[in-house]
Specification:
By secondary structure, the chain is α+β, with helices and mostly antiparallel strands. The chain folds into two domains: 75 residues, Glutaredoxin; 127 residues, Glutathione S-transferase Yfyf (Class Pi), Chain A, domain 2 (Up-down Bundle), CATH 1.20.1050.10. It is 53% helix and 6% strand. The protein contains nine helices and four strands, in the order βαβαββααααααα. The chain has a four-stranded mixed beta sheet. The radius of gyration is 18 Å and the shape is globular.
């Protein structure tokens, strides 16, 4: 159970969205956090009314005391370093940065496909207009990103037997980018179940990786808990 006296705060809307990347960092590390989900403080903070502290552009934002930090990938890298979920070598640290950025590009593209007319209006006001963009993303972009993620796992696990029960993106231990990759795979499956079923058999390492990650005790407990927020149902969010 998460303590109500948590030092860490996650500021985000009460849905999976980009906040889920950050939740997975706290959950896997077993670090207590509390969420600020109420629209009023979120709106006040990010509509230019807040003049206090280091400027953060948008949620998700983490906060501990006076320290505030935004940008999903940056937050994940920071927490990865804080929680010991960080690659050992400098080369792998930058490669992990590359992969994390690609994961964030992928989910950003997926979101924009649902907002082809207006990036900032709700999907429900542009469903018919944006459907061709969604179809294009499914046909052309998912088959571009998934094999790249598969190749990343293959590179690091080439010497492991097929029965290996620990596939990681870097080295032989969990890093923050494993958690980022897990979430974007779950978001793909949730948002595009037919495309996921049609594609995933081509990517056996991704399928095994996702299953193994979802079976980690802390993550398994989290996914079964009320703390795990539902997907919004559009935009991979």
């Amino acid at each position: 159970a998460m303590s109500s006296e948590a030092e860490w705060e996650l500021w985000y809307w009460p849905l999976a969205g980009r906040g889920e990347f950050v939740r997975l960092m706290f959950e896997e590390a077993g670090v207590a956090y509390k969420e600020v989900n109420d629209p009023q403080p979120l709106t006040d903070k990010f509509k230019g009314q807040s003049k206090v502290g280091w400027p953060v552009f948008a949620v998700p934002m983490i906060k501990k005391g006076d320290f505030e930090l935004g940008q999903t990938g940056t937050v994940c890298r920071y927490l990865g370093k804080q929680f010991g979920l960080f690659p050992a070598s400098e080369a792998d640290q930058f490669r992990a940065d590359q992969l994390c950025t690609t994961v964030m590009d992928y989910i950003a593209e997926g979101r924009l496909a649902f907002h082809g007319k207006n990036h900032y209006e709700t999907y429900y006001n542009q469903q018919e207009f944006t459907q061709p963009y969604i179809d294009y993303f499914i046909a052309n972009r998912i088959p571009k990103f998934l094999p790249h993620f598969e190749a990343t796992l293959r590179y690091n696990n080439v010497d492991k037997p097929e029965s290996a029960d620990s596939l990681y993106c870097f080295g032989n231990s969990l890093t923050y980018v494993d958690l980022c990759l897990l979430h974007v795979l779950r978001a793909t499956e949730s948002q595009f179940p037919d495309a996921w079923k049609a594609n995933i058999s081509s990517y056996p390492l991704l399928a095994r990786f996702k299953q193994q990650m979802e079976s980690r005790p802390r993550l398994k407990a989290y996914f079964a808990s009320a703390r795990c927020r539902p997907f919004e149902g559009n935009s991979m969010m």
